[in-house]
């Protein structure tokens, strides 16, 4: 039996601050992905870890982007995105695509990529795999938008390699 909170369900003595919420969520370990898309015909990428499989029937994937990111603006008019799941030795790519580099080809300088056969978005061949999605819904929530994608296909790259893991504000050391 659940004992009711003395002040009623959902009652807190004060609101949780943004910083407290951020600190709490640091404890949730996640994988790391690079979302790719195209803008004016040029490739664009950003690092993200808010990737959620919403459903398997039909296969549906969710990503959450802050409204201040450039990619958020691009996905408002793009039809699709690709989620490249990173391997444990790809921390450098996570860091590169989290940085605000100039948009366009130079963002990918020295990074091997191939166009997805399904969407044409960049696929990172040294990642674990790439998931192509068509954007089905855009749901604004506070300062983020949830982009719900219908999965169009999965391109295996290095399936079986260990995933890159992010926890407590840092990447897990390789091979731990
Ligand atoms: C490990 C990690 C995970 C991140 N996850 C997200 C995320 O889920 N959503 C988001 O909007 N930004 C996320 N970011 C921040 C973006 O990568 C960063 O703001 C980036 O500069 C946005 O690029 P853009 O302005 O070109 O879109 C993450 C950064 C790191 C390092």
UniProtKB/TrEMBL annotation:
<dbReference type="InterPro" id="IPR050268">
    <property type="entry name" value="NADH-dep_flavin_reductase"/>
</dbReference>
<dbReference type="GO" id="GO:0042602">
    <property type="term" value="F:riboflavin reductase (NADPH) activity"/>
</dbReference>
<feature type="domain" description="Flavin reductase like">
    <location>
        <begin position="25"/>
        <end position="173"/>
    </location>
</feature>
<dbReference type="Pfam" id="PF01613">
    <property type="entry name" value="Flavin_Reduct"/>
</dbReference>
<protein>
    <submittedName>
        <fullName>Flavin reductase</fullName>
    </submittedName>
</protein>
<dbReference type="InterPro" id="IPR012349">
    <property type="entry name" value="Split_barrel_FMN-bd"/>
</dbReference>
<keyword id="KW-0560">Oxidoreductase</keyword>
<dbReference type="GO" id="GO:0010181">
    <property type="term" value="F:FMN binding"/>
</dbReference>
<dbReference type="InterPro" id="IPR002563">
    <property type="entry name" value="Flavin_Rdtase-like_dom"/>
</dbReference>
